[in-house]
Fold this sequence. Notes:
The complex is a heterodimer.
Chain A: H1 5-25, H2 39-73, H3 86-100, H4 107-135, H5 139-163, H6 166-176, H7 185-203, H8 206-212, H9 216-221, H10 226-248, H11 254-266, H12 271-296, H13 304-322
Chain B: E1 2-11, E2 14-24, E3 29-34, H1 40-47, E4 55-60, E5 63-64, H2 70-74, E6 77-80, H3 92-97, H4 112-125, H5 140-153, E7 158-162, H6 170-187, E8 190-194, H7 198-204, E9 207-212, E10 215-219, H8 221-229
Parallel strand pairs in B: 3-8, 3-9, 6-7, 7-8
Antiparallel strand pairs in B: 1-2, 1-4, 4-5, 9-10
Helix pairs in contact in B: 4-5
Amino acid sequence: xxxxxxxxxxxxxxxxxxxxxxxxxxxxxxxxxxxxxxxxxxxxxxxxxxxxxxxxxxxxxxxxxxxxxxxxxxxxxxxxxxxxxxxxxxxxxxxxxxxxxxxxxxxxxxxxxxxxxxxxxxxxxxxxxxxxxxxxxxxxxxxxxxxxxxxxxxxxxxxxxxxxxxxxxxxxxxxxxxxxxxxxxxxxxxxxxxxxxxxxxxxxxxxxxxxxxxxxxxxxxxxxxxxxxxxxxxxxxxxxxxxxxxxxxxxxxxxxxxxxxxxxxxxxxxxxxxxxxxxxxxxxxxxxxxxxxxxxxxxxxxxxxxxxxxxxxxxxxxxxxxxxxxx
Amino acid sequence: xxxxxxxxxxxxxxxxxxxxxxxxxxxxxxxxxxxxxxxxxxxxxxxxxxxxxxxxxxxxxxxxxxxxxxxxxxxxxxxxxxxxxxxxxxxxxxxxxxxxxxxxxxxxxxxxxxxxxxxxxxxxxxxxxxxxxxxxxxxxxxxxxxxxxxxxxxxxxxxxxxxxxxxxxxxxxxxxxxxxxxxxxxxxxxxxxxxxxxxxxxxxxxxxxxxxxxxxxxxxxxxxxxxxxxx
Lengths: 327, 231
């Protein structure tokens, strides 16, 4: 599928609108337009499904753009926030924050603290992975170091969980399962502003990202300030991953598999197109996963990471067998 | 025109060559020769701004490179490096079109004029039929031609090429040197090329910069070959 960019966008947007409608009205309780103006249906619609659907769109889109940025920065199609440990870094920082300051009852202070911790954790891991990628020319080495680092951060997180009090532990475990259904409309407002602002900023980097596809030396010769670009990519990726992880917990595979799928489907290297396609496809993927979770479960909610992994892993396996560029 | 005035090249930990002073006229085809590690690639990367100049003054068309922004330098010097490019759905057209990046807005869209320049660059190298082909699937010779077309699309007065004949067969090497000589004469480009193909290179270039451990020599190819290299 390599039609004109406008047609591609309309197809993706159309799919997203259909899924958004289905997500809002179909689930364990089927709603109609006439019902949502009052009573329980109104609560389900406005307080549960609407924030959940918008969160899924923004989290899916945001993580896909973060993944695309990481793949371009490291020039590695297997880079992604979850695989390279950026989500784990955010997770560990949130675990530390929750265990140390778990007593904070003020809603805004609590959310701000978690967001700050998640962004800081993501930023530190991004810097570490960048440091490793400068030392090693091998994509596979960078990938394996990222995976190992992710395991180390997971183990550290385990130690913190082990020594924490039961109340903090419970809230952290629920957060760590990854979900788009724990956000309120107040949370959604923050996520909308931050994610859309960062994605729009990324669009302005399209030309520089196009140059970076060749390599850093060529980008520099094409007039790109590579050091400034690298810092911008790291900050945007860390903020996107951090803020989404803070509100939804670590979401697996969307950041890795969606940009790969987008490249396979739309067959363009232009980064402006890929940013838009990845955002829309990421939003579509996570919303689809959420719809499936919602439709499959009546008394319990299936963890969204189960589905993102089920959908994302085959994409990565396919790439490993097909790619000529990983060596 | 390219002027090097007492320049030192290398890295903060090691000066590779010191005190290079020479002048290259517009439209000249220059060879960089010498053993590995003597500074050929370092000189090329220094001129195009990939490696910082340690000392001295570098002028391109009378403009001091140290006073140019990265974007201004990009419209003065194009480079073809040894580093491999791969992946990310890049077609031959995409790679050549990247030469227009210094002239595009932040979103990176090509105008009709940019497309015409890309097409004319590909035509002048004879690779327009490769337009839609994946860059990854091209032969080494075709990849080199695509990168040369990218350098032409950048519309600079100076083109630098680091070992473009590596991995090419004899016939392709001769064809490439003939093409570069033709470009320097017909389009008035200053082309500086590093290569170990002494025999073929010296037959095509106007002058040679020869690096060795004790310094450098700059002169006519025949004279340098007889006085320095053949000994």
